[in-house]
Amino acid sequence: MRAVILIPAVKDPRPLTTEPLALDLVNTEWLQDGVRRDLLAEPGGVENWLAAAGHPGAPAGATALAALRDARAAIRAVVARRDDAAALNAVLAHGRLSERLAPGGPERGLEVDAEHWRVPWLAAQNLLELLRAGPDRVRRCANDACILHFYDASHGGRRQWCSMASCGNRAKARRHYERSRDAQ
After folding, report:
1. How would DSSP label each residue in 120-169?
2. What does the CA dihedral 79, 80, 85, 91 come to, rounded to 10 degrees?
3. By C-alpha distance, which of 29, 31, 32, 136 is closest to 76?
4. Contact yes or no for 116/61 (Cβ under 8 A)
5. Between 85-92 and 62-79, two packed helices, what is the crossing angle to 10 degrees?
6. 0.70 exceeded by the pTM?
7. What is the mean pLDDT of residues 92-112?
8. Which of 141, 127, 151 lies closest to 76 in space, CA to CA?
9. Crossing angle for the helix pair 62-79 and 118-133, nearest 10 degrees?
10. How far apart are the first and last CA of the chain?
11. Is the pLDDT reported for residue 89 higher than 60?
12. Alpha-carbon torsion (146, 148, 154, 156), positive or negative
């Protein structure tokens, strides 16, 4: 009988983990107690993020890390409205969608220069989808002390915070304090 070793799942330390792939990659950097953290720089962080993003087993070595960082920087530049199309296009140049008619019907596949570009390419391509769907809905949290980004999928398109539980509540508490202080 073979022994089964259970390895506990590593809890994702990031405060926001529910965004589309492109923004989830950007959100691998966040501020915690005023200190910038980078999940991709932490031990096991690349593997942790790949698993959380639905790509367990994807390459996670040095070349994959470099490709992920290139994609993250390119996506961040676009969502920060710096219009750095060249960097994003450089990431997208590492792959292409292919279509063919197979015996079972139409098939679409992804061809990448090297396997370590698969997930970064998918993240860059996901940003294009988000921009097609609603470029004004790709936003940075309204809290000046937060660097997280989100896709506003709300009905009215009025979301301001990465999370009401953290940044939104802080803003509400700050407004309440200012009103009560002004009333005195």
Report:
1. HHHHHHHHHHHHHH-GGGEEE-S-TT---EEE--SSSS----S-IIIIIH
2. -60
3. 29
4. yes
5. 140
6. yes
7. 96
8. 127
9. 10
10. 74
11. yes
12. positive
In DSSP notation, 7-63 reads PPPPPP--S---S-HHHHHHTTEEEETTEEEEGGGSTTHHHHHHHHTT-TTS--SHH
Backbone angles phi, psi at 52, to 5 degrees: -65, -30
pLDDT tens-digit series, residues 24-49: 999 999 999 999 999 999 999 999 99
Buried b (16+ CB within 10 A) or exposed e, 158-175: ebbbbbeebbbebbeeee
The separation between CA 37 and the C-alpha centre of its own chain, rounded to angstroms, equals 14
The answer to whether the beta carbons of residues 71 and 120 sit under 8 Å apart is yes
φ, ψ (nearest 5 deg) of residue 11: -70, 135
- Name the phi and psi angles at 99, rounded to 5: -125, 145
* pLDDT per position as a tens digit, 163-180: 877 787 665 666 655 666
The helix (H) or strand (E) run that includes residue 115 is: none
Reduced to 3 states (helix: H, G, I; strand: E, B; else coil), residue 87 is helix
Angle subtended at Cα 85 by Cα 115 and Cα 100, rounded to the nearest 5 degrees: 45
**Tokens 């691998």 belong to residue:** 28
Residue 166 is predicted with a pLDDT of 76
Structure tokens at 111: 């061809």
